[in-house]
Amino acid sequence: PVSVGMSLDIASIDTISEINMDYTATIFLRQRWTDERLCFDGNKSLSLDGRLVEMLWVPDTFIVDSKKSFLHDITVENRLIRIYPNGTVLYALRITTTVACSMDLSKYPMDKQTCTLQLESCKM
Question: Subcellular localization, per the record (predicted)?
Fold first, then answer.
């Protein structure tokens, strides 16, 4: 198994829809793991074009309860791949996602809602 470190920053919560029971957020997702096959000599990291991600193994991370999501691609895909000499890979991307959130509005307007943002990975 590969150990993958992950961090997530919420850049914005764009909309909250009581009618659709969902919210839309823009997030920055960063993942880090080590792949010994990518070790190289040197003391500086290599930053790669995001289009090269198709040539690398990346975690199959997905957003639980996502209704729709997209990666930003203006002016280029908002993905970063950085490889360090020891084979550590940093993979970062910007995603906007609409996520289901079951809301209990029975106490409106004195209600309080808790919506989650969960990430998972498929295991094969």
Answer: Synaptic cell membrane
Write the pLDDT tens digit of every residue in 18-34. Answer: 999 999 999 999 999 99
Q: CB of 61 within 8 A of CB of 30?
A: no
| Whole-number Å distance between alpha carbons of 72 and 76 | 8
Q: Read off the pLDDT band of 77 (50, 70, 90).
A: confident
CATH of the structural domain 4-101, one choice from 3.90.1150.10, 3.40.640.10, 2.70.170.10, 2.130.10.10: 2.70.170.10
Q: Hey, what's the torsion of the CAs at 14, 18, 20, 24, to 10 degrees?
A: 20
Radius of gyration of the chain (CA): 18
